[in-house]
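Reply to dn_fold:

You asked what the input looked like. This is it:
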Amino acid sequence: MSEPGGASASLDLTRPLQEAIAEAEELIANAAFIRTEQDRLEGYDYLAGRIRMAMQTAFDYDLDRPLFVNPTHQFSRQGLDNPDAIYLNAYLREGVTYVVRGRRGTSADLSFQVMGGAYSATSAATNLMAFDDRELDVRDDGTFELTFTAEPGARTLIVREVFNDWDTEERGTLTIERPDRLGQPATPLTEAVLRKKYEVAARSLTGSILTWFEFPKWFERQEPVNTLTPPRSTPGGLASQRSSIGHYELDDDQALLIEVPRCDDCAYQAVQVGSDWYASTDYETHQTSLTKAQAVTDPDGVMRFVLSERDPGIANWLEATGHRSGSLMLRWQRLERDLTDADGPTATVVPFDEVVEHLPFHEPVTPDQHAARIAARQRAVARRMIS
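and this is what came back:
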């Protein structure tokens, strides 16, 4: 074998990833829904996040030394990610006992979910266990400890910390460990281990892109355009969560009016806009999502949102940000009762110039006031997000 640094020193370990990146670029560049140059550029930005996620999936964990990683954030968007959530994933080995310790923050919801298998272009992961922190013994100082053994088929522990009020709610802390491996050194690196990691990264990259191309076809794209479903259990979601899904397509002179009763029987309620990449749109410097704490509720108990490209001059404007089509989702979490169809949203396409006529309690918002709302979002994201 050549000496390190010699002309033939390369182990050629990255070739699978190089080939996967080239394949992924072709998938992105030829996506059927691309209409504009903005769509294409957002696709390449989306690709960067997928590469980042793939490397994290392959390299930032060790099944002997588990830890929580944050694979989804403003620089790595996927699966119509929730702008109000911090996502943490830990990979599991079935039959192994784990200890999760943490300090409960003041977020609206903290939930745990053990998943079997993985999302793919042909199937969804299996929900093996799901609960929120109401089932934990949280001490007076906010700390808690959870011990569990990964059941057969268990692959991932997903934690979602969801924020209703971005300005006041604070993050908690969380760790995971294997007691049987504490005090032992990490397994030394080998060429075989590194080769496998690059191969895993390659499969994760193309697999995730193909998965999220197909996922919306199974659910929201089954519904008529510019409509929203009644609240239903979220596919693969939590027992105390309900969601309404849909997709929109609007001309520049149209707007979508979304009306939904404010629900006070849940800690968290929100609406968001997504792109055709099935990912969140810019929720930091644009108002593409609103929780019930951020939105204005009218005197009749209804929240009325307007999705449009142009500014209608209202507090509950959902910005289309150049996307003539995309995904829609409403979520309710930490519910104290089940929801009925009457709790759900309605969606109506209206001419943009007639928006105000459909708002019975219209209170105008100036561009300066809207800019102040955006500044608050930027500060909140900076405080909360982990990238």
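The mean pLDDT is 94.
Hope that clears it up.
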